[in-house]
Amino acid sequence: MELNLDNLLKTPKIGNVSTSPDAKWVVWNWVNLAPVRDLYFSPSDGSAPAKKITDFKQHTRFRSWFTDNKHVVVSHDYDGDERARLYLVNTETLETKPLTPEHPNYYIHGGQVTPDGKFLVYAANYDFGEQKETEIAFIYKHNLETDERIALAKPQKPGYTDVEMNYTGIYIFYTRNDINPAGVQIWLVDIDGKKDKEILNFGPTSKVWASWHNNGKDILFTTEENKFRRAGIYNIETDQIKWIVDDPKRNITSIVNPYGTDLFKITEIEDAQYKTLFVNPISFKETALPKTRTILPITPVLEDTWLSRYFNSKQPDTLVLWNTNSGQVIKNITDVFKHVPYSQEDLAKAEPYYWQSVDGLKIQGWLYKVQGKTRGTIVSVHGGPTSHSDDSFDREIQYYVSRGFNVFDPNYRGSTGFGLEFQELIKKDSWGGKEQLDILEGIKALIKDGIAEPFKVAMTGTSYGGYSSWYAITHFPLEYISVAAPICGMTDLVVDYNTTRPDLRVYGEEMMGGSPTQVPEIYKERSPINFIENIKGKLLIVQGARDPNVTPENVKAVEEKLKEYDIPYEKLIFDDEGHGISKPKNQKVLYQRIADFFEATFK
Asked: Three-class SS of residue 489?
């Protein structure tokens, strides 16, 4: 049965879930109930229906709670340009107050209002004294009455800046990349900007990620060292660190102190599947929960009952009340099947699939199979590359399966979800190395197993998935990739580096081993644009015209090469999209176009 694309696109998708400091309320983004992403609000125990609290013409994103539990800071950009404006929204009256200028010419990270309501704290790559955009993001205290901005801290080098204020409004921690592109350090500054110091640094190439304890005095953190992650707690008054988990066999992804409890919550990922544990804050004794592969606890609302996210490939993401003793779902708060005319039985299941790569490394992915005769196989490559595909609902994949395509979703080396050592492997020979051969060997395994047919394999993906699609169509034999639809994918890595957001260049330097001036040959060798003459298959280029990450300059550059070699191609540009095609009206056009394009190629 072909699932109706309109119904798939109406399936609500939950994101940015956050509970209030008193744990009594929850907000989340709900996508696909309207033309853009809006913010919804309800009691965390599900005792009242959800209500929409934002109504912008642009996608809205949650930023933070105000300490009164009644206001939230939200943001929206302009058709995906990622230059956000911040607002304060009253969850009761829905009154919306702008906090920052419309159409800013800089990027904002974070956004929290101090408990007295006088100041807004965020990071921005802008010098308000000289009135010009900068590459480095400064930490600002923005006076909401006078509009004065005071720079509390100034990192030395560009980088993506996380910034978070404690509940008292006295201290802010933020991230720096001053030492090495591969490393992240945590710094602490007070609200007056008098004390700015480094507090967590475990080496030039080690990353530290942190969150405030609810007491406002401790910082929970994970650090990447010696091929594994460990978790600890740092006290800002004593400068002491206590290690909570220090075990190389475990793949810890986060540690937090949820609102409404003294417990710490640790999330681990094993083979792309989640595991949650509770930790006693005094003894550090761990309590394992019932199987939580696709249930992620958020905050306690009743004794032994937590507000949680529940999802899998046949269950679109929903908020539920979940009993941590029995492992049973007590109540479905945001039941998505109330909004669509299909059921779980109509959806394809994600099946784990394993194969060996060229060097014998074991690789995992997800396989969605058609019931009956297939039209071909689509390789759907996730972005990042520092992310992974899991057992979760994907409307795009479900549509392709309904159109008669098997879909293969590989977690190549460099993906998260398999341990730090596996994640770091992609940096051994940079982008465009063995991670692309992981995908190729996966395609070969599918053909060998009779799941895919030669000359009937397509590839698509967004961002790094788009880059992989470009790489495949310029490097893989036609029998393994006969058609590609890269979405917002890098074509020329030098052009991409020079035109992307300044705070994202450090990531490229980490992955490539330096900048284009430092390692020019690697950038040249790994850029698909330099292998355009090898294209033998069909090509559909997809791009968001306002993309500040992988900019349209990538398309402009590659089109010149395609015309130079007289290689035919098709192009689909969305004028009101940025990095990725996210609006339902545009996704409808995109998914249909890709499925039709692949189907016509395979006939």
From this structure: coil
